[in-house]
Amino acid sequence: MSTPRSRTDPRRAATRLALIEMAELLFAEFGVEGVSTRQIGAAIGSSNTNVVAYHFGSKDALIIEVIRHRVPALEARRSELLAAARRIEARPSMGALLDALVRPFFEQTNDEGRRTYASFLAGLSRSGRWDIRNSLDSDYPITRELNELIAESLPQSVRAFAGERIFIALSMTFATLQIIDLVPRPPDEAAAIFADALAMAEAALKTPGGENQD
After folding, report:
1. CA 89 to chain centre
2. Annotated domain spans of the chain
3. What pLDDT was estimated at residue 212?
4. Sequence-distant (≥ 6) Cβ neighbours of residue 45 within 8 angstroms
5. Residues 120, 31: Cα–Cα separation, whole Å
6. Residue 49 to residue 42: CA distance in whole angstroms
7. Taking a C-beta distance cutoff of 8 angstroms, is the pair 75, 141 a contact?
8. Is 121 exposed, middle or buried (0-12, 13-18, 19+ CB in 10 A)?
9. Could you state, in chain order, the average pLDDT of each consecutive group of 10 residues for the chain (214 residues)?
C-alpha cells in the first residue's frame, strides 16, 4: 500500500517564510513605501519577479503575514508577563502593564540581534498604514486586554484620548529600540536604555490633561 503524498510543499513553505522575514527586514530599514515586491523577491534570490504576488497576492497581504508571523510569540510573552504581574498584585500598576505590552518588542530579535519587527511597525506607522495592524485586532486578545487595563489606569481627564496616548507610548518605544540597535551595545546598557524609556513613557501616560498646563 502506497503512502499518501503530503499536501504540504516544504519548498513553498520555505519560500513564503523567506519572503516574510525579508519583507520585515527591508520594510524595517527602508519603510513600507520604500521597498517594492520585486526587490523583496530579488533579495531572497528568486528569479521570479512576481514571486510575492504568487505567494501572497499583494504587498498589503504580505504585510499582514509579517504581522501574523509575529503575533503568536508576542501574545504568548505578553500573557506570561501579565500573569507574573498579577501574581505580585491583583491590579497591576501602570508600569507593570506597560512593561508587559512593550517588553516583547525589546526581547524579540532576528538572527543578527536586531529588533526588526519593532522597526517594521514604526515604518508602518510612518507610512500611514497602521490601519493594516488595526484590522488584525482580533488576533491580539492579550494585547487588547493590556490596552484596556492601561486605559483604565489613566487619569480620568485623559481617558478619552487613551488610544492616542498608548499609541504615542508605543512610538516612543519603537524609537528607543531603533536607537539601541543603531550601534552595538552591551546587553546591560541596552536594558538600561529600554528601562529609562519605559519610565518616560509611563510618566507621559500618567500626566493629567489640561489646556493650561505649566
Report:
1. 27
2. 70-206
3. 47
4. none
5. 7
6. 7
7. yes
8. buried
9. 54 93 94 93 93 95 96 96 97 96 94 91 90 93 96 92 93 94 93 96 85 48
Alpha carbons 94 and 150: distance in angstroms, whole number: 6
Grid coordinates in use for 103? 517588553
Q: Which amino acid is at 19?
A: L
> Does pTM surpass 0.85?
yes
User: What pLDDT score was predicted for residue 5?
Assistant: 45
| SS3 readout for the chain | CCCCCCCCCHHHHHHHHHHHHHHHHHHHHHCCCCCCHHHHHHHCCCCCCCHHHHHCCCHHHHHHHHHHHHHHHHHHHHHHHHHHHHHHCCCCCHHHHHHHHHHHHHHCCCCCCCCHHHHHHHHHHHCCCHHHHHCCHHHCHHHHHHHHHHHHHCCHHHHHHHHHHHHHHHHHHHHHHHHHHHCCCCHHHHHHHHHHHHHHHHHHHHCCCCCCCC
